[in-house]
Design goal:
6 strands, Rossmann fold, two-stranded antiparallel sheet
Amino acid sequence: MENILTSQDNMVDAVIAANDNLGLGALQALSAQKMSVPVSGQDATAAGCNSIAKGELTVTILKDYRVMAPQAVALVDSFLNGETDPELESYLLSDLTGNDSLEGEVLAKYLPVTQVNIDNLYEDIVVSGFQSYDDVYQDIPDAERPPVPPEATEEPSSD
């Protein structure tokens, strides 16, 4: 990110990072230049969600593995039983990769994702149990925190 800022004379309007860690790194580089632009990440990590709670990272993308994993298992199971999923769609490899030299097609099913920002952070991340309340609101003054949801705990259960 530092190299991008240097090469662009700090003329950057926003950062779309491939994951929360890269987004957090971009925030550090922007901060060093005293810049503030929207920065997005992906994966709804505890650190990324905490950064949203602090008003730093603008958005992260929640790809809830608790929903996706069972769907992937069901899809594999159907393939092993000689069945197909009617929701699978065919996509050209060249379209998926942006590489016009690739030929062929692949079946895919796009699963829903959630854009998480300050407005839905509490409900979609904490109340849902995707990340813990304490991780998301770490270093946030008590007076600025939402209430602890009944099911939210400091540490994940070892049961």
